[in-house]
Write a structure and sequence with these properties.
By secondary structure, the protein is mostly helical. The longest helix is centred in the C-terminal third of the chain and has 55 residues. The radius of gyration is 25 Å and the shape is elongated. The model has no long low-confidence stretch (mean pLDDT 85).
């Protein structure tokens, strides 16, 4: 069980990140040779902008999710405390 996070990261690197970077390099090379540097730079800039936007949206969604989980835990705790107080009052 301890190796599971490392395996997940390694799996993502080997099967997602590395092939994407290789494909991006090949695409930039072909575009540079056939169409000029402007198209290759436009492709790289678009890729970087997409990565930045995706990262920003993911962080925004995770912040909302963390707040929801925290609020649910607080509500559950308050409900349990209310029930405990009510039980204690009726038992006396």
């Amino acid at each position: 069980m301890r190796n599971q996070p490392q395996q997940a990261i390694l799996f993502q690197l080997v099967f997602a990140v590395v092939p994407t970077l290789v494909e991006l390099f090949i695409t930039a090379t072909v575009l540079t040779q056939r169409c000029g540097e402007k198209y290759a730079l436009a492709t790289l800039a678009t890729f970087v902008a997409y990565c930045a936007y995706t990262s920003w949206i993911t962080e925004w969604r995770m912040k909302i999710r963390r707040n929801l989980v925290r609020d649910r835990a607080r509500e559950r705790n308050n409900c349990c405390m209310f029930q405990d107080t009510e039980f204690f009052q009726h038992s006396q």
